[in-house]
Amino acid sequence: MPNTLKASSKTPESSLHTAKGKAAPESSRGEQLQELEEALKALANENQFFETLIRGLPGIFYCFNDKLQVLRWNRNVETVTGYTEEEVGSISLLTLFKGGDKNLIRNSIKDVFVNGEGLAESTIVTKDGRKIPYMFTGVSTRINGASYLMGMGLDISARKAAEQSLRESEALYRLLGERITEGVVLAHKNRFLFANEAAASMFGYTREEFLAKTPEFMAAEPFRPYFLELYQALESGAAEERTFQARCLHKLGNELWVEGKANFITWKGKPSLLLTARDVTETKLRELSMQEEAENLRRENVNLRSSMRDRYRFGNIIGKSTAMQEVYELILNAAAGSANVIIYGESGTGKELVARAIHKMSKRADQPFVPVNCAAIPANLLESEFFGSRKGAFTGTHSNKEGFLDQANGGTLFLDEVGELDIMLQVKLLRAIEGGGYTPVGGNAVKFSDFRIIAATNRNLLEQARAGKMREDFFFRIHIIPINLPPLRQRRDDIPLLAEHFMKVYSGGQGQAVLPGKVLNDLVAYDWPGNVRELQNVIQRYLTVNRLDFISPEPLQAKAPLSEAVENGADLRGATENVEKALIKKALDQNRGHKSRTAESLGISRKTLFRKMKRLGLS
């Protein structure tokens, strides 16, 4: 526009003179007139273009001089202000403003004339008194020594209304956030974005102190994985809302209980966590006190029952010997608490019966009892069996599978033959026991399970830990309440009771058979390498074939394998094989067919045992 105005200021007469004011020759005057006509025509076209442009501008366009007289404008000026074409040309620009706005615009115009450009927001007052928010922009220029300001104005009523609405909404939400009694917290990753006074004071901090902390400091150590899992569940879309109850830390160091709701939202384009929480310490402590009182009543009941002496049976466990009375006491004490239990005993002594008795008398009695034979699970399936697996984790798996920890949630996990547990699995299992959670195979979400461990073994776990075959931290985590089950040969007084019980069980409802005195004496005199399980099988066979049939043909005076081989007249190689075969058979019987324990008792490797069994026809 300024260049156009400068070009148009040249008069037609000036083009009729040559340099130094001399008249042009007659021969060139016609050419000059033709050039002048063409220049005027081009100027007219150019002016028409700019006129069209000015009329089409979305806001108001104006051009005024340094005396603030409006020289040019578009129709929008008349439409917005209400002044007619004649009135616009005769008024000062400042007529459109009142009060402080008039001074603001006057100073802004001065700045534009000095600096060359500028911008200001103000309110136009129309002819009929209406007020319209407008944003003005302008640039200054000089033409033929005079100063002019050209600019545009845009109606910002809608923007101002939106800003006002936003300010009112923000003020309302801030008022609600401050007045509400519940704590309100907004967090993004590991940083607080907002917290109201109720949230900060709940933890004993000022709002500034609270916002300077990180969200993880809120929860007490055992509950931090719980909050991490909660955040991951919301972020992944697994849940839209989660309720929580957790133990947290106060500024003074004491603990408080907080419960509330968590929602995953988008705040200013960022995935954020919105928490509302309230202090429920008083209610929770009262609840815990009631639980403790109920636990004390349970203990009193247990102590009362444990004072009963000379018990002949305890649930499905039978025995009146002193050794078994001590076992009953330990069962009652273990059932009264929640600590992990380890049961030691030879194969067939009833370790699972003891574990079930503890579970049945504990506060977890209504929840699952999940028995796991650690020695029977292939090494490559251990992790998926314990922690479960997600769909597609293995070839051919078309659905999620629960693991033992999922099944035992709220109840008891019985780990039979715990000494066989893979040492790498012990690490992950220990983390789950200590509240760190576990991850199913093929998954990435951390899961948590509330379970009690009761383990059983016939090995010396302390020696295994010292030898590096078991992690010491895992050993001490499960070895809290040890119970040692005596072998049957160390409680021979219980053999008649057990025999009578099994006679009753297997008599088939046809009247209880009576054991002859000699048979009962043989039963008491036998060494019982298979313990109660072996006695049970012997009684069942006795009722079937009407004779005692022990693992060893002569229970009291069994022949040595070497003597038997010599009597059979075998050569050296044959006798050696007979002795080897007899020793392996005996070891297998004593270890109830368990290959690892059999190999260990014979002092050979498991691989060597399998090779010999195959060669001797024992496999």
TrEMBL record:
Stretches assigned to the PAS domain: 46-116, 168-237
PAC domain segment(s): 118-168
UniProt cross-references to SMART domains, sorted A to Z: AAA, PAS
InterPro entries per UniProt: AAA+_ATPase (IPR003593), AAA_lid_NorR (IPR058031), Homeodomain-like_sf (IPR009057), HTH_Fis (IPR002197), P-loop_NTPase (IPR027417), PAS (IPR000014), PAS-assoc_C (IPR000700), PAS-like_dom_sf (IPR035965)
PROSITE patterns for this protein: PAC, PAS, SIGMA54_INTERACT_1, SIGMA54_INTERACT_2, SIGMA54_INTERACT_3, SIGMA54_INTERACT_4
Coiled coil: 280-307
PANTHER family on file: TRANSCRIPTIONAL REGULATORY PROTEIN
Record-linked NCBIfam families: sensory_box
Pfam families: AAA_lid_14, HTH_8, PAS_9, Sigma54_activat
Keywords: ATP-binding, Coiled coil, DNA-binding, Nucleotide-binding, Transcription, Transcription regulation
Entry GO MF terms: ATP binding; sequence-specific DNA binding
Domain Sigma-54 factor interaction: 317-544
Chain segments carrying region Disordered: 1-29
Polar residues composition bias: residue spans: 1-17
Protein name: PAS domain S-box-containing protein
